Amino acid sequence: MRVLGIESSCDETGVALYDTDLGLTGNQLHTQMAMHAEYGGVVPELASRDHIRRLVPLTEACLAEAGIGYRDIDAVAFTQGPGLGGALLAGTAYANALAFSLGKPVIPVHHLEGHLLSPLLADERPEFPFAALLVSGGHTQLMAVYGIGDYRLLGESIDDAAGEAFDKTAKLLGLPYPGGAKLSQLAESGRPGAFSFPRPMLHSRDLQMSFSGLKTAVLTAVEKVRAEHGGDVPDNVRNDICRAFQDAVVDVLTAKTHQALLDTGLRTLVVAGGVGANRQLRTALNALTVRPAAKGRLKPPAEAVRVYFPPLHLCTDNGAMIAFAGAMRLQHAQTAGAFAVKPRWPLTDIVQPPLSGSDR
Length: 360
Ligand code: KG4
Ligand code: ZN
Hints:
One of its GO terms (biological process) is tRNA threonylcarbamoyladenosine modification. Its EC number is 2.3.1.234. Residues 25-324 form the Gcp-like domain. The protein starts with a strand and ends in an 8-residue tail after the last strand. The model has no long low-confidence stretch (mean pLDDT 92). It is of the alpha/beta class. Helices cover 39% and strands 19% of the residues. It is globular, with a radius of gyration of 21 Å. It has ten helices and 13 strands. The chain has a six-stranded mixed β-sheet, sandwiched between helices. Strands 3-2-1-4-5 form a five-stranded mixed β-sheet, sandwiched between helices. Residues 111, 115, 136, 317 line the site of zinc ion. Zinc ion is lined by residues 111, 115, 136, 317.
């Protein structure tokens, strides 16, 4: 079965082909980053117009890459939400028109489900069940994944997403949009411990997270540095701030992930979403072992965790994850074509409540 996947939820147009026998045979992407950089952020109207311009040529390139024609497509999957309304509408209209003209089914996909399943596109695939840390520009969630369509939300950020915190902090440090990746690059030459920022909700005993306070702490530090350096933030000090910010985010994400593994008993972890590209986060999660609470004076041994990341180029938005999620939905007969977009579509609409201890 060959499923064409269309992604257009934000500032990337992605078109990919997933063949259930051969795997990913076509994967085309256009990023609008340069276009939006001029404005310091995504301009929704420009994004929608650019998606419209790119969808047809990207599809042609994708089919050529896969060595097939339009008539060989068995279904068209598209991101129905969440995302920017106009941007979603461009992909939705295109996917529906294409599927209708070919007489093939159309499969609406939840963007986050795409991210969630993207590690299954790697050569080394995780087995169900697994815990998932979803860290993108719009969402930070911990989920338990028991199978295709069987997801339970364990905890999430109550305010800014981790990627959003990276981008906002980058902006206030004067880094060009989109700043998250740039900030993490500068953090690598920052000295650990030169600054110290709070770890919000680290000890809240639940799996909720909060990142909005962190950027305020960074802002306070930046203002103090500016006052001391005649209005400037010297490069080395800026790098130290980047490092301290990244240390705080990575610490919180790692601690909450540890708690999620402990609570669920799961020992396989999947990391998805743009922030999953962060090298320091990858290193910390790769080193993660689960340490069950001591019983009396007996200290149980640390338990190993298998950690899976999507291939780096599939961490950020792409059509491949949408094609793949669509193919999985089709195989599990979970399709319901719809020509509608869902700009605000909580993942909780397609997840179950968390399992209580006795159901596990
Ligand atoms: O998943 P994604 O492509 O888009 C959303 O669905 O949001 O994630 C984009 C987010 C942005 O906030 C970006 O700054 C962040 O991922 N990001 C990073 C890195 N690369 C991308 N954040 C931290 N470190 C990185 N290396
Ligand atoms: Zn995304």
